[in-house]
Write a structure and sequence with these properties.
The complex is a heterodimer of chains A (285) and B (311). With 285 residues, chain A is mainly alpha-helical. In chain A, 62% of the residues lie in helices and 0% in strands. The two termini of chain A are 35 Å apart. In chain B, strands 1-2-3-4-5-6-7-8 form an eight-stranded parallel β-sheet. Classes of the chains: A mainly alpha (285), B alpha/beta (311). Chains A and B meet through helix 3, helix 7 and helix 9 of A and helix 2, helix 3, helix 4 and helix 12 of B.
Amino acid sequence: MQAKNLISHWLQRQLTQDMFDFLMKQIDLVVSSNKPQSLYLLLGKISRNLTKTDLTLSKKDFAAANQIRTGWTPINWTILDAARILLLVELSSDNPSKFKTNFAQLINTADLNETVSFYRGLPLYFDQRDLISHAKHGIRSNVRVIFEAIAHYNPFPYEYFDTSSWNQMILKAIFVDSRLAPIIGIDNRCNEELSHMLIDYANERRSAHRNIAPELWRCVTPNDKNGSIDILQQMLASKNKIESQAAALTLCHNQSNRAQEILSQYPDLTQKIHAGEITWQNLLV
Amino acid sequence: MMLIDPHAHMISRTTDDYAAMANAGIVAVIEPAFWIGQPRTHVGSYIDYLSHILGFERFRAGQFGIRHYCAIGLNSKEANNQELAEQVMEILPRFALKEGVVAIGEIGYDEQSKLEDKYFRLQLELAKELDLPVMIHTPHRDKKRGTSLSMDVCLEHNIDPKMVVIDHNNEETVQETLDRGFWAAFSIYPGTKMGNVRMVEILKKYGSNRIIVDSACDWGKSEPLAVAKTAKLALQSGIAYEDVNKVCYQNALTVYSQSGQIHERDWLDPMPIDQRLLFEGNSILRGGVEPVVTDGRHKNKLEDLDNLKIS
């Protein structure tokens, strides 16, 4: 089964038969006609005729999605997302070489909801390499939901971003108060430069007496030279549970003597981490 | 009382204005497409502008608990740049059916030139084809004649007057606008257009039927609280609550909801999807500030307003 079949199946479940048939027919027409105006008109009809509700997906649906395309995680997808993404998937498979231009035009004239939809569908289009610059452009958005359409539950950045762009995405997430936990592959692309930038940022926040997002430490490799272990030591003693847990998680993964020595004073925290009770994933839940 | 400002160029206004408007009870604004202070030289600017009032500005307004809608169109001034006008007409259909587009507008005449006439008529046809209301900008120079002409042309193209808002009316134009069955909007804009003391007189004379109050606030010295101040002044002057509610809220909602893109529940009971998109991505309010309104309910703060008079 392909992505387009699965998405069609979801839509058929939630749309009336008439609406579903109408949508499928219109998508066929648009793909075969190749006229830009008909594409825009259909997008308009989708916005105006389909209801603004979430897709109701089961565990089986998520498993099926992941099977078709590793990392495809349609959390919080709406019916409108599904319809728009289906349209784009069909367009891109019909003419992959033209899709890059199509996508550029669509993104440039998209409203907020459409922008979110188009970015959410990135891991499903052909050819994804052509769309990397668009994704990099999208994560510069200050509209958090647009940023998250690319950064969260989306395998695209993990697979296609170079280190510099990956690092920028993590930093941006912290800046726009977005979560790191939903970033696919967050633990597998830690690098020294990112660690550096995050520690600098933590120090900047500390000097300004502002709070530091606890998730920031997930991508940090602390060391003695840049003050990070000092900050973590303070955090461990904090009354704020989230801070102390974040600090413990960070130090746990650090093999330096100093880190282990500090941690030894908090056996309770260490034990809970080893038992899997405290993890980065459930830190802010 | 909840208020709507159905003509506000928020792209030119600051977040202070949004905060003040929200505080004064404004629940929704409509931003019509217009010129931006100096002439555009490229269709790309127009495309980006339409994209902005459809996208980012909706989001920006949402951060203050205000629902933002827009009207799409080629304005009368830039209709005179034929090369630009042709290209804009070609891309308009791309935007006209986007979410939150409540009308084709603001279109009409500036100098009443041939080119303005050509593109006005084309856009009326577009509005008819897409079944959208029309927001009409009436000229500031030679207004009486231009307003009459605007209505003549609408009727010539078989546009239902109930779908058309004739904006920037004054004492000289209101009678004809109402008589011919159109909605009559008034822009309470200090110094140049209508003032609210005069507006109250108009309400006393003509009642509230098919009358709409807006601010038309823009790059110039204008008053984003015009609708609120006019509402308060009207109430103080003895205009019935129901009539003030009509001209400062209900009538705008009635005419523009014919587009299917604006509903009272948008601010009274926002859908979860809208909450996520508009109210929760609070990157404009940095430093841990929460969006002003999270439950969709607005508190009337008309009583806090002072310095009411706009002349």
